[in-house]
Amino acid sequence: MARRKAATAIQEFPLIRQLQRRFERNSPSVIQGIGDDAAVVSILPGDWTVLTTDLLAEGVHFDLRTAALASVGYRAAMANLSDVAAMGATPRFLLVSIAIPPTLRTADVTQLYRGLMQACDRYDVLLIGGDTSASRQGLFLSITLLGTVKRGQALFRHGATVGDSLYVTGTIGDSLAGLQLLTKRRRTARSPRLRPADRRFLINRHLHPTARVQEGLWLNQARLATSAIDLSDGLSGDLRHICEQSRVGAAVDVAQLPLSPACQAYAETQGIDPATLALAGGEDYELLFTVAPRHERSLERQARARGFQITKVGVIRPRTFGIQTTSIDGPARPLPVTSYQHFR
Ligand code: ADP
Ligand code: MG
Question: What local confidence, expressed as pLDDT, does residue 127 receive?
């Protein structure tokens, strides 16, 4: 999890790269090691196995003064389900490890698991084990999810090539708007009011996100996408991962970013550009993916037939182009990484 960095001199991504350089070893059975949404290993005859794990710490990833335990569990499972979705895999089995502080009771842990399993039941994922410990301070939750794809067929962050179109599923920015609604009370007297239905929609998008498992399976099985990542940290940061791994650049058309009516209405109440929410906001758990131009029509047709919302938001450019935003009424600008700032 790249979100919510601890206040320490350690920087997450440089640390991971250093660990990878020093300790990762190549093997024919490791199809994808460190560096993607999930690892892919070849241990079964017909399938590749997809593995992802996340560690959540109280006070860093969640605050039990404001978040219900069921929602902590639900969102933790959904984050892992989303990583598996981004590989185009079917999520199958779950391992959960917890370190429980003295302040929690058995009933609290049951609530946490209710949330976890509510997310997993939607995808027929089975709990198969874990580990339990006491914690001196704070709740720790570690989740490992195992999935499968057909051997030889997975969606990676690498694979985007110059000229590919950049697409995103669903709408983006909703989760950040929902988080702000839950945590801030900023509204000037003159600003318009947000309709209760919009408010509910945005808060629900934050508390009850949906991993795009069906969409990931479709993109992978129909061999439509050349690369994919899930939007867990925010488009401005996650697009960078696709570009780095694929050694390409990208132009994002800000005017095309898919915004829900509720997100637009919320931005208006705050006097901000909703595109900033869409670029910065993490935890939408939509999929960002690239498609070769020759497959675009087929992609759009199939998406319509299946009822999947997808939007073209940009195009893959050479690496020297960098990552820029474009709009009709202004010059192209480098896209700064604004994701994760809202967790500061
Ligand atoms: P996500 O946000 O999708 O959960 P991360 O940014 O946490 O992904 O991880 C990026 C990559 O680095 C993944 O391949 C992950 O398995 C790997 N990784 C993260 N932390 C470690 C670690 N401590 N040791 C080895 N690999 C790690
Ligand atoms: Mg991810």
Answer: 97
**Contact 215/285 with Cβ under 8 angstroms?**
no
- Probe target for ligand 1 pocket from 11, 20, 34, with the most ligand atoms within 8 Å of CB: 34
**Which residue's CA is minimally distant from atom 19 of ligand 1?**
16
| Of 16, 83, 146, best ligand 1 pocket probe by most atoms within 8 Å of the beta carbon | 16
Closest CA to ligand 1's atom 10:
35
From 172, 149, 156, select the one nearest 290 (Cα to Cα): 156
Average pLDDT over residues 92-107: 97
pTM summary value: 0.92
Decide the pairing of beta strands 323-327 and 225-230: unpaired
CATH of domain 165-334: 3.90.650.10
Placement of tokens 């999947």 in the chain: 308
> What's the gap in Å between 83 CA and the centre of ligand 2?
5
- For atom 11 of ligand 1, which residue has the closest CA? 35
Residues at CB less than 6 angstroms from ligand 1? 1-2, 16, 19, 34-37, 54, 83, 232
What order of strands is seen across the sheet that includes strand 323-327?
A: 225-230, 287-291, 165-169, 310-317, 249-253, 323-327, 330-334
Domain boundaries, the chain: 12-150, 165-334
Q: In this structure, which topology does domain 12-150 adopt according to CATH?
A: 60s Ribosomal Protein L30; Chain: A; (3.30.1330)
Which residue, judged by its Cα, is nearest atom 23 of ligand 1? 16
Q: Count H helices, E strands: the chain?
A: 10, 13
- pLDDT tens column, 49-64: 999 999 999 999 999 9
